[in-house]
Amino acid sequence: MRVVTTDAGLGRLEDGAVALLDTAFPHVGAVLEQEGSLRCLASCAVRRRIPLEEATLVALLDRPRAVWGVGLNYVSKAARTGRGLPEQPILYLAASSGVTAPGARVVIPQSVTEPDYEGEIAVIVGRRLYRAAESEVWPAIAGVTAANDMTARDIMRVTGTPALAKSHPGFTPLGPSVRTPEDFADRDAIRVRTRVNGELVQDDTSDGMIFPVPDLLSRLSWFTALEPGDIVLTGTPAGTGQDRACFLADGDEVRVEVDGVLPLVTRIARPTDAPQHDHRPTEPVG
Known about the structure:
By secondary structure, the chain is an alpha+beta fold. The protein has seven helices and 19 strands. It is globular.
């Protein structure tokens, strides 16, 4: 099942159209808070159908409670950086205020000199996970979507703090649709691709992860409780702007494609006439 949140309510994607559902839930996050999965939407009656191109898609979850990310989680990315494979996941939290709707324009602050894209597979937690075994992870995941885990590389370099480099407004675009896990023929080989202005720059599958989804969320759950509606961004493969020495510019369009999910498109704007105040430290912190 593939689900979207529209300005007219929740819908299922069916035969190239949006089947608007007869449900009081306003968005996917509200379903998960009460039901712990999206299965109840499979049997919902359809109010009406509209062509996909006529639907206005909005944020899947409104605003998630928590957005977790992991650095250096693809073999290809580790190889590109020349670093060895990490023995433990490099985990961080990003501000949920950075989440933006699909198709939104992301305005880069003037103080950010190296804005970068990171095409990723995002998983949405359906049922609470705490100190979970790997075998408990996929049954507790409500769905998979696309994400662009944008990063200010200059801020990362200066502060060494992922949360500061990834939490600007709009820096976490999330996909326009969510696909339930049982719909994947092989959940260990979900493909993720990124195109910048039409050029394919990232292409890998979840088989290339250093810490696969069950391992990653199991490890994370031993330090925190993952709650319904939480997002876990599972890492980015090689081919980021950092790898290519080519950062995002005004007018760029980033398209992240994840198997079975509607493409996530982000448009970049860099206004030059707004006053900015640069509060970044001049020396690395810590």
